[in-house]
Amino acid sequence: MEILTITLNPSVDKNASVEGIEPEKKLRCTAPKYEPGGGGINVSRALKRLGTEAETFFVSGGRTGDLLENLIEKEDIKIHPFKVSNETRENFIVQDSITEKQFRFGFPGETITAEDQNNILKSFDNIFPKWVVISGSLPQDVSSDFLIGIIRIFKNKNSKIIVDTSGEALMKTAEEGVFLIKPNIGELATLTDKKELDENSIENSAREIIKNRKADIVVVSMGGKGAFLFSETEKIFVGAPKVEVKSTVGAGDSMVAGMVSALSKNKSLREILKLGIACGSATTMVNGTGLFNKSDVDKLLGKVKREM
């Protein structure tokens, strides 16, 4: 297996639009569109659009879980669902067609029992991927130690691990040490015990993480500005192309997918970051919860420029 993505708190995303959002008024929405959600799942979906195959592992429960599995399989992605008794969560995204503002309602994921956590770890015994992407949040009441258990299993298999998460889970991940992390500036400050960072001090903090073997590569997301990539020997900044932003849902996952696709093909670090930026930017051009169109990525690649 070349690439495995892991999603511990997946969702079914229900997307609709409405003409104006007002309190205490019945709002007539358009017919909802259902799409698979969750960090690792979105990374696999985006990789598929790039022509890079990735299998996806996720927790699935109840009728919503069945729907999630069907939605992913319709995109011709090989799935490894782990069945649990709790219902898979839903997210609700509404676009106000008058103001063009987007409202995102995320529901908490049900916890994973201790027994299921142990069985999930055992289920990885006979899986040997070259690349492992762990992306998204943890379900409520699930300790970051569970995530660390997964990371250790694949580190022992010599898999290269990429983690895109936040909060305590990101802190614990960095302490364990992985191949690549993708913090924003605020998260980078927390990781290096700083109150705040400006652009001039980003490099020092990223280098501190690399020196302490918390990650081989640190990609610092700057939102619409672009991103920095730091390795032991390189510093690269790629600015994001100017596009009409319609939605930011899935943009970060798409960026990760672009980088993983390029990494799996042994591209240079510069090309890795360029493709990541192009994929993330292309996804913001799509309404609702949709991911990028490959044709948009190809067009944006010509506009993505290396600044450093």
Automatic annotation (TrEMBL):
Residues 14-291 form the Carbohydrate kinase PfkB domain. One of its GO terms (cellular component) is cytosol. Signal peptide: none annotated. InterPro entries: Carboh/pur_kinase_PfkB_CS (IPR002173), PfkB_dom (IPR011611), Ribokinase-like (IPR029056), Tagatose/fructose_Pkinase (IPR017583). The keyword Nucleotide-binding applies. One of its GO terms (molecular function) is 6-phosphofructokinase activity. It comes from the Bacteria. Keywords: ATP-binding, Kinase, Nucleotide-binding, Transferase. The keyword Chaperone does not apply. Pfam families: PfkB. Belongs to the carbohydrate kinase PfkB family. PANTHER family: 1-PHOSPHOFRUCTOKINASE-RELATED, ATP-DEPENDENT 6-PHOSPHOFRUCTOKINASE ISOZYME 2. NCBIfam families: 1-PFK. This is 1-phosphofructokinase family hexose kinase. The lineage of its organism: Bacteria, Pseudomonadati, Bacteroidota, Flavobacteriia, Flavobacteriales.
